[in-house]
Design brief:
The protein is an alpha/beta fold. It contains six helices and ten strands, in the order αββββαβαβαββαββα. Helix 1 crosses helix 5 (about 175-190) and helix 2 (about 90-100) crosses helix 3. The radius of gyration is 24 Å and the shape is globular. It starts with a helix and ends in a 9-residue tail after the last helix.
């Protein structure tokens, strides 16, 4: 994959997309192969800092001591150490876990955070993660912590050989968007055991659009659309036929008791 292929796919994505009344996200989807997800070493879980930021809507909650509470107000919610006791209530901690995308915490509070919030945040994979810069020292510049989170994406395999991430918005400069995509792709390759040979295919899609394989030409996409329309037409005809046959079936008279 090179930048030229990405730029061409971005233009095709725009061409084949319907106009929406909101700015759609651009998602990168990468299919993998020749990996055994039952083996820990074959699983992917990496955080990548994008070279170019975009309008990313994130809700961030911070765990801080009373000395940092005021400074930490740059985040959407701050829970100070003396407020932790409130969240021993399981319902409240579970509700909190649903409300925020990321949780950040002071390093010296992590033991308490794990004890009180671990059961709610752990299953949702939302515990403050040092790899993402979510654990900070007392003297940290919290604006830097927040800015980094706004540029971070996470690639993680779950139950299938696929990773995906939002890499930008449709109204971004094409060059910036292409560089974000290429950076995520090359960062992934570096952690795969067989590098590029573990990649089956890479696709781009808008929020409300269909995926387009990076490298596909316009005629390839048009052919796939035609095939899909033909298949949908056949399925619709078959469905109508079945409904008609059911309608025309003779109703069996009830047997006299």
């Amino acid at each position: 994959m090179d930048k030229k292929d990405i730029l061409n796919t971005l233009r095709l994505l725009k061409e084949f997309s319907k106009q929406r009344n909101f700015k759609q996200s651009v998602d990168l989807i990468i299919n993998l192969k020749d990996l055994n997800l039952k083996k820990p070493e074959d699983n992917v879980d990496i955080f990548i800092t994008l070279p170019h930021s975009f309008d990313k809507k994130l809700k961030i909650c911070a765990f801080a001591d009373k000395n940092l509470k005021e400074i930490a107000k740059i985040f959407d919610k701050v829970i100070s150490e003396d407020e932790f006791i409130v969240y021993k209530d399981k319902k409240k901690s579970k509700q909190l876990a649903k409300q925020y995308d990321y949780f950040v915490a002071q390093a010296n509070l992590m033991a308490k955070v794990a004890t009180i919030f671990g059961k709610a945040l752990g299953p949702k994979d939302k515990m403050p993660n040092p790899k993402a810069g979510c654990v900070f020292p007392q003297n940290a510049d919290l604006s830097v912590v927040k800015d980094k989170l706004l540029k971070i994406v996470r690639l993680k395999t779950k139950n299938e050989l696929i990773v995906k991430a939002c890499v930008g918005k449709e109204d971004m400069q094409e060059d910036d968007l292409a560089e974000n995509i290429l950076h995520v792709y090359t960062s992934l390759i570096r952690v795969l055991s067989k590098e590029i040979y573990n990649i089956k295919g890479a696709y781009l899609k808008y929020t409300m659009g269909f995926p387009i394989k990076i490298g596909d030409k316009k005629e390839d996409i048009e052919k796939k659309i035609s095939e899909k329309k033909l298949l949908n037409k056949k399925e619709h005809s078959l469905k109508k036929k079945i409904q008609k046959e059911k309608k025309n079936e003779p109703v069996k008279a009830e047997e006299n008791k």
